[in-house]
């Protein structure tokens, strides 16, 4: 799985690897020892099994891109057959055909002709038996985070759901009048479901659907929520169910439900004050009643 570099400081995995790839054979041996030291530090529990650290480098693809890799291979037991039909017990086997007990961090340098700058031009990958796209929290945290300085990137579907939920939280908690909140909710659904742009971005939504005096508050709110400011691929797979219907709830469990595009085109909601000073909601629907139940 492709990962994200979190730590690129002196002594980090990507920094050590950069030095490694610029070393001669003797220097390679000396620098590679730093990986073993760092892994020993990261393995901060006696429940974590030991093993061997294998450090390697090479090229991949065409044109060739340079890479370095670090593998932790856990030792296991087995029997070795001898020539005189006897067998001997061995307890330090690794990378045998039947084992899956190894973890690999691979760092590919994306610019074949450039200097080994880090971390911008490095793409890290992780192999871990317990890591899958649907079970991203199964990987060994001590290895990819503590040792390699990597984070599991959030996929765009999850980020789109965060954008949807956090933007609704901002609208809900704002002191904007009811009419403006209705427009903002309509804008959010339109931005995600109707807008044909392949990406979403916080600033873009603010500029297109919010009044100017609200955009700074919104972008600061999203920044405070640690939401990315960059463009994100519009993968709606985690919010499709939520985008099918808009719901407006009133007192005593009254709910107005309908498709978001119908809300935007046919429904007007405004807050009014009655003669006795109470707040009421005036709903105007630009259409007749089709049926009642």
Overview of this structure, please?
This protein is of the alpha+beta class and about 290 residues long. Helices cover about 35% and strands about 25% of the residues. The protein has nine helices and 14 strands. Strand 11 and strand 12 (about 255-260) form a beta hairpin. The longest helix has 18 residues, at about 25-40. The two termini are about 50 Å apart.
Radius of gyration computed on alpha carbons: 28 Å
- Compute the separation of the termini in Å: 52 Å
- Going across the major beta sheet, what is the strand order? 2-3-6-7
Shape: elongated
In the predicted model, the low-confidence regions spanning at least 5 consecutive residues are none
- SSE topology string: EHHEEEEEEHEHHEHHEHEEHEE
- Number of helical segments with 4 or more residues: 9
Please, what is the average pLDDT? 83
Would you count the extended β strands for me?
14
Fraction of residues in helices?
25-40%
**Proportion of strand residues:** 25-35%
Helix-strand category: alpha+beta
Largest β sheet strand count, sense and barrel closure: 4 strands, antiparallel
Note the main attributes of this structure.
9 helices, 293 residues, 14 strands, four-stranded antiparallel β-sheet, two-stranded antiparallel ribbon
List the helices and strands and how they pair.
Layout: E1 4-5, H1 13-21, H2 25-42, E2 52-60, E3 65-73, E4 76-81, E5 87-93, E6 102-109, E7 122-128, H3 141-147, E8 150-151, H4 156-173, H5 178-194, E9 199-200, H6 202-209, H7 212-224, E10 232-233, H8 240-243, E11 246-249, E12 255-258, H9 260-266, E13 267-273, E14 279-285
Antiparallel strand pairs: 1-8, 2-3, 3-6, 4-5, 6-7, 9-10, 11-12, 13-14
């Amino acid at each position: 799985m492709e990962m994200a570099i979190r730590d690129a400081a002196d002594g980090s995995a990507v920094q050590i690897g950069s030095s490694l790839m610029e070393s001669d054979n003797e220097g390679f041996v000396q620098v590679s020892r730093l990986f073993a030291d760092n892994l020993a530090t990261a393995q901060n529990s006696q429940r974590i099994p030991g093993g061997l650290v294998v450090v390697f480098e090479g090229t991949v693809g065409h044109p060739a891109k340079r890479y370095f890799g670090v593998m932790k291979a856990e030792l296991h037991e087995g029997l070795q057959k001898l020539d005189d039909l006897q067998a001997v017990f061995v307890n330090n086997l690794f990378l045998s055909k039947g084992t899956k007990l190894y973890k690999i961090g691979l760092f590919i340098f994306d610019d074949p002709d450039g200097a080994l700058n880090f971390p911008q031009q490095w793409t890290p990958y992780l192999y871990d038996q317990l890591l899958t796209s649907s079970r991203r929290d199964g990987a060994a945290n001590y290895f990819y985070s503590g040792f390699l300085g990597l984070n599991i990137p959030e996929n765009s579907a999850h980020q789109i759901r965060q954008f949807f939920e956090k933007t609704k939280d901002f609208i809900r908690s704002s002191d904007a009048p009811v009419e403006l909140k209705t427009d903002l909710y309509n804008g959010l659904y339109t931005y995600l479901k109707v807008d044909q742009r392949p990406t979403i971005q916080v600033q873009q939504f603010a500029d297109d659907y919010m009044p100017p005096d609200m955009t700074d508050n919104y972008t600061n709110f999203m920044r405070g929520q640690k939401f990315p400011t960059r463009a994100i691929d519009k993968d709606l797979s985690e919010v499709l169910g939520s985008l099918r219907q808009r719901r407006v709830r009133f007192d005593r469990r009254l709910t107005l439900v309908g498709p978001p595009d119908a809300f935007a085109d046919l429904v007007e909601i405004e807050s009014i004050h009655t003669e006795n000073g109470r707040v009421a909601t005036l709903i105007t629907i630009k259409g007749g009643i089709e049926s009642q139940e």
